[in-house]
Amino acid sequence: MPPSSPDSRRLPTLLAMIMIAGLAACDRGTPVEGGSAPAIPVTTRQLQLQSWSDTVQALGTVKARESITVTAKVSEIVEDVHFDSGDEVEAGAPLVTLSGQQQRAALNEAQAAAEEAERLYKRQSELVQQQLIATSQFDAQRAIRDAARARVAQIRAQLGDRVITAPFPGVLGIRQVSPGALVTPGTAIATLDDTRRVYVDFPVPESQLSHLAVGQRLSGRSEAWPEREFEGIVSTIDARIDAATRAVTVRGDFPNPDRALRPGMLLQITLSRPERQALLVPEISIIQIGNSAYVYRVKADDTVERVEVGVGARRAGLAEVTSGLEIGDRIVVDGTGKLRPGSLIREGAIREGAFGEEAAPEGAVPAGAAAADADVAEEGASKDDSRAAPTATPSNGD
């Protein structure tokens, strides 16, 4: 009997591997029941109009309803300070008194001159009625009297500038001056803010301009008060759009009775748009390819087609569809990663890990199945080698 060659010994093993791989491929991809591909289990949803109130998010800065830095109008020595840092004051309350000795002396002099001019005016008014003096002389005395009165008013105004008062009610900041200090125009004495109501200015993209309206509800959150939500309304929409940012500035009005919001604070603003009816789909049903978004729509024969859709606002796992779908359309929600246009589907449970998988090319074997087939083939080859080993004994030359 001639000796067996190595190729002849490996032939049974190769045949076994080919048979096993062929059976696995038949189980996965061969047509069944008249040539139709097996249906892919997915979950679907039929679209209906739903109530939808999307929001606009923005960052804004708190501003006081009224806010100034208190300064002096003249250069003078501080005579007295009538407030402490953080005081709450009413409108007209005196804050600082500046030295005004020269002005008080000038006022006394001006008042004396005004009184004398008034007496001469009255005397000459009697004389002019008796035609004892010329009318021009009387007119000159009247001008002198009026000038003396104006001088008194001027000096009183200068004295008034020496007393700095609060122009509106509010809360004073940290005091910056002390008695005896020299202040000049522009010297900061303290800040004054009316924060019983505050404004928050925030930018909104111009694409949202048609959805803005005075009176819309706002909510704001601050890192300083993480557990608290502040409620307000839109009070003003700016008349211009910033050409650099293409955004319009919106001003919100927030009541602040406990003064929790302070000027300069950063707020996360949420602008709630009016509630409306919209077609909503779960975000997981949307397939994003570049700048385009698609969903799989189920046809009457339970096959799917890929439809490009326009996507609007997104919130809480839902997305608004603005174009591409209609009321009553049935779309695939879970299992989109296994689908291709024309795939047959059925309602069923989705195995864990199927979400987000990309469809494999036609004829391709999933990695897990290929590994399992390789293990089976290796096991079969080992068994064939063990069976072939007794017959593959070396020849004695007989």
Helices and strands in order:
Elements: H1 6-29, E1 40-46, E2 49-52, E3 55-70, E4 76-81, E5 88-89, E6 94-98, H2 101-129, H3 135-161, E7 163-165, E8 170-172, E9 182-183, E10 190-205, E11 217-222, E12 225-242, E13 247-255, E14 266-272, E15 276-282, E16 287-289, E17 292-298, E18 304-315, E19 318-323, E20 330-334, E21 345-347, H4 367-388
Parallel strand pairs: 1-21
Antiparallel strand pairs: 1-20, 2-15, 3-10, 3-14, 4-6, 4-9, 5-8, 6-7, 8-10, 10-13, 11-12, 11-14, 12-13, 15-19, 16-17, 17-18, 18-19
Helix pairs in contact: 1-4, 2-3
Tell me what you see in this structure.
By secondary structure, the chain is α+β, with helices and mostly antiparallel strands. Among the domains are: 40-52 and 277-347, conserved putative lor/sdh protein from methanococcus maripaludis s2 fold, CATH 2.40.420.20; 57-64 and 212-275, Efflux pump adaptor protein, beta barrel domain (Elongation Factor Tu (Ef-tu), domain 3, Beta Barrel), CATH 2.40.30.170; 100-161, Orthogonal Bundle (Helix Hairpins), CATH 1.10.287. The protein has four helices and 21 strands. It has helices at 6-29, 101-129, 135-161, 367-388; strands at residues 40-46, 49-52, 55-70, 76-81, 88-89, 94-98, 163-165, 170-172, 182-183, 190-205, 217-222, 225-242, 247-255, 266-272, 276-282, 287-289, 292-298, 304-315, 318-323, 330-334, 345-347. Strands 2-15-19-18-17-16 form a six-stranded antiparallel beta sheet, with no helix packed on it. Helix 1 packs antiparallel against helix 4 and helix 2 (101-129) packs antiparallel against helix 3 (135-161). The longest helix is centred in the first third of the chain and has 29 residues, at 101-129. The relative contact order is 0.18. Belongs to the membrane fusion protein (MFP) (TC 8.A.1) family. Residues 67-189 form the Multidrug resistance protein MdtA-like barrel-sandwich hybrid domain. It comes from Marilutibacter chinensis. Residues 356-374 have a biased composition (Low complexity). Residues 100-130 form a coiled coil.
